[in-house]
Write a structure and sequence with these properties.
The complex is a heterodimer. By secondary structure, chain A is α/β, with parallel strands linked by helices. In chain A, the strands form 3 sheets. Chain A has a 7-stranded mixed sheet, with helices on both faces. Chain A has a 3-stranded antiparallel sheet with strand order 7-8-9. In chain A, helix 1 packs across helix 8 and helix 8 crosses helix 9. The longest helix of chain A is centred in the middle third of the chain and has 19 residues, at 172-190. In chain A, 34% of the residues lie in helices and 16% in strands. Chain B is an alpha/beta fold. Classes of the chains: A alpha/beta, B alpha/beta. At the A-B interface, helix 2, helix 6, helix 7, helix 8 and strand 6 of A face helix 3, helix 5, helix 6, strand 8 and helix 7 of B.
């Protein structure tokens, strides 16, 4: 039995933070319905690959990677009929995930109290930059904005340099929030039989980013201000990226206790950087590993993919059609997580979902279509 | 409002072997801290990795800050008194759902206890002869290569981001397992390893390297998003296409009106020039000025605050996110709350005290 078997999720999530949260819920066995609007689609659909093989502009690689495992409908929530159709979906669903700008959901007439009136047990997961309340609730942020305002940038960087961000290619807070938000939804789902009613989960990425630097706050509260940490880190006597003779950077962590092993090889912690600079990467790794010292090359994206099973097994996956997709940060032994469905084309499942989940008649669905409230994928594109 | 903390009636046992790496110990520690805040009973069996972090700088009245953060609301049990086969029951006699968080070396012993759920945490998916640390796992996951200056060494993000991300993944698995057990399902074994978590975090860079002609790497001063100076510190210059016009208006420098800069690829290529122009303008503003401007103009600019400054940040104060709570040493410690509100309520564990 999958952990979220029997759980239906309405996914209003976009880009990474919201969409990746719902993708994890799909991995755990939930029936996830991605809801886009004819007038507002997930911006990840606009990210186009430079590979000719990825010619289908409705499902570029980043979109496919974070939306596999879901069905998809296109429904205009700004239209009264679209809003009513959405509330009918809420009645037979368990979870709503959203990461709109604060204020958008209430403006649509779909705040938590409205959802709870439609379904008293509903779990609403609101993933936001700053949270539902507080003076900065309306602050517009992207992931790296939050690294700055949450204290992470303060401790990141060369000891003699400015604060550094993870940047546009990592956008760290957007990645980790999917782990945390999905875990809180799983917790709320596991608690549903013991609880009296629905839950609104207020999940600010800024707070999560600070929480993940928790010890810096404990230290600061006791007068240890800290600053840019560089690569050094207690308890290691030496932790740094050092350049080998072939130009590659090698990450090493050397505890004080390694001094005697180094001495036996005619080395010391103090002379290690110079020794590494005189040898190629393969030789350095072989010698340091033989001495029991942690050392690894600083890989780039190409290297990571090529390393495959030597380093990782389930972080990246292929969809049933063979496309590379975001995989799993964890895995179960007896009942493994797996991707069983491609990301949806626009409106791929509109009719089926409105009929089977919202319980709408064909006449009602045709009325929505006539009013331009819904979109349907051409039959050839609807693969799910 | 929920009637009870959601993990009330759950026991989580943190059981690390003597060989457990620091990184795995930190990951398990964070998962346990989250479970504790949500009301689970946490038994932390004494182990060298836990003792080590209690002595790891910076020390607050003799105890490591990392231990004070991770090990709140946990009961520490001497290893000699721990019986992994024991079945726990609540006060009313009902059996508690027990989740064991173990490292690889303790897996074998626990695998025999079939009635319990097991979460196994390791450095890599497959054992290797090479020793690992959190830092070297960041390297093999491609996360170091992305951060820092192009002509300087790759840089890690501050703190323990990889170990704690693995802790988040571990907790997600625990929550899934608790749901399955409460629904009557059979226990399963969960695997989390730090190398897979690193690659999972880095999926976008790996996908870009594979699916496009662009190989992401660290760009330092030439990065599209970076920090720049302002009057009293630093601010994160972060923007997407939709924000460019608003940023130009705020900076008010005619050089940014060059029509070539309406193209993102040109902006990326000439990021060093653009960043210098923006910095010259921002040097006339303080971080608080920029916060107010960002709010008013809906721009995603991020003043860089220190952890000490954030204790008094109006937003965090209003949300009661950072609180001084009774600490292990008899004084108070500044602690971040679990970063979630349930119907406006924060859970903070079954008791407000630290491990005895």
């Amino acid at each position: 039995m999958k952990p979220l078997a029997g759980c239906r999720v309405l996914d209003l999530g976009i880009i990474t933070a919201g969409a990746a949260t719902s993708a994890m819920l799909a991995d755990f066995g939930a029936d996830v319905i991605k809801i886009e609007s004819p007038s507002y689609r997930d911006p990840f659909r606009r990210w186009l690959s430079e590979q000719p093989a990825d010619a289908d502009p409705s499902r570029p690689p980043f979109f496919r990677a974070t939306n596999r495992g879901k069905s998809g409908i296109s429904l205009n929530l700004k239209h009264p009929l679209g809003r009513e159709a959405f509330l009918r979906l809420v009645r037979s669903s368990d979870v709503v995930v959203e990461n709109f700008r604060r204020g958008v959901l209430p403006k649509l007439g779909l705040d938590f109290e409205t959802l709870r009136a439609a379904n008293p047990a509903i779990i609403l997961a609101s993933i936001s930059s700053q949270g539902e309340t507080g003076p900065d609730a309306g602050y517009v942020s992207y992931g790296s904005t939050l690294e700055a305002v949450a204290g992470l940038a303060w401790v990141t960087g060369y000891a003699d340099g400015p604060p550094i961000l993870s940047g546009v290619d990592l956008n760290y807070p957007d990645q980790v929030v999917a782990l945390f938000a999905s875990s809180m939804i799983l917790t709320a789902w596991a608690d549903r039989a013991r609880r009296k009613g629905g839950v609104h989960l207020d999940l600010p990425q800024r707070e999560l980013t600070s929480f993940l630097s928790g010890e810096a706050f404990v230290a600061a509260g006791a007068g240890h201000e800290g600053g840019r940490e560089g690569n050094a880190q207690a308890p290691y006597a030496l932790q740094e990226c050092l350049r080998a003779a072939d130009g590659k950077w090698i990450a090493v962590s050397v505890p004080q206790s390694a001094q005697s092993a180094l001495s036996g090889a005619g080395l010391s912690i103090a002379t290690l950087p110079e020794w590494i600079s005189g040898h190629d990467t393969a030789h350095v790794l072989e010698r340091l590993h033989a001495l029991g010292i942690a050392a690894a090359p600083a890989m780039n994206g190409h290297d990571v993919l090529a390393a495959g099973d030597a380093v990782w097994t389930h972080a990246l996956q292929h969809t049933p059609a063979g496309d590379l997709a975001k995989g799993f940060p964890l895995q179960f032994e007896r009942e493994p997580l797996m991707i069983t469905r491609e990301a949806p084309a626009i409106g791929a499942d509109t009719d089926a979902v409105l009929r089977e989940v919202a319980g709408m008649t064909e006449t009602e669905i045709e009325a929505l279509y006539a009013a331009n409230v819904i979109e349907r994928a051409p039959a050839a594109q609807g693969e799910s | 409002m929920t009637d009870k903390a959601p993990l009330e009636g759950i026991r989580v046992v943190e059981w690390l072997s003597d060989a457990c790496s620091d990184a795995v110990g930190l990951a398990i520690g964070l998962a346990g801290r989250i479970a504790a805040d949500l009301g689970a009973e946490i038994l932390q069996i004494d182990a060298p990795a836990i003792a080590a972090r209690r002595q790891c700088a910076p020390l607050i009245e003799g105890i490591g800050a990392t231990a004070l953060f991770l090990d709140r609301n946990k009961r520490r049990i001497p290893a000699a008194l721990f019986n992994p086969g024991a079945t726990a029951t609540a006060a009313d006699g009902t059996p508690l759902i027990t989740i064991y968080l173990a490292d690889a070396a303790n897996h074998t012993a626990l695998a025999l206890q079939g009635a319990h759920s097991l979460a196994l945490t390791s450095d890599r998916a497959a054992a290797t002869a090479a020793p690992d640390t959190e830092f070297t796992l960041l390297a093999v996951g491609g996360l170091l290569d992305l951060v820092g200056d192009i002509d300087r060494q790759p840089m890690r993000l501050g703190g323990h981001q990889l170990a704690y991300s693995a802790g988040l993944a571990l907790y997600a698995g625990i929550a899934a397992e608790i749901g399955r057990r409460r629904d009557g399902g059979a226990p399963d074994t969960l695997h989390v390893n730090l190398a897979d978590v690193a690659v999972w975090l880095n999926w976008k860079s790996v996908a870009s390297a594979t699916l496009t002609n662009r190989l992401p790497t660290r760009l330092g001063d030439g990065a599209e998003w970076r920090t720049i100076r302002c009057k009293d510190g630093w601010v994160a210059l972060v923007y997407l296409e939709a924000d460019w016009a608003g940023l130009k208006t705020l900076v008010n420098d005619p050089r940014l009106d060059d029509p070539r800069y309406d193209d993102r690829l040109t902006r990326r290529r000439e990021a060093t020039i653009i960043n210098a122009i923006v910095e010259a303008a921002f040097l006339t503003y303080s971080r608080n000025d920029l916060r107010a401007l960002a709010l008013a103009r809906r721009l995603p600019l991020g003043p860089v605050w220190s952890p000490a400054e954030l204790e008094h940040d109006p937003h965090y104060v209003a949300r009661e996110f950072l609180r001084r709570v009774p600490g292990e040493t008899g004084t108070t410690t500044l602690q971040p709350a679990l970063p979630v509100m349930w119907n406006g309520h924060r859970f903070d564990g079954p008791t407000a005290d630290v491990a005895a």
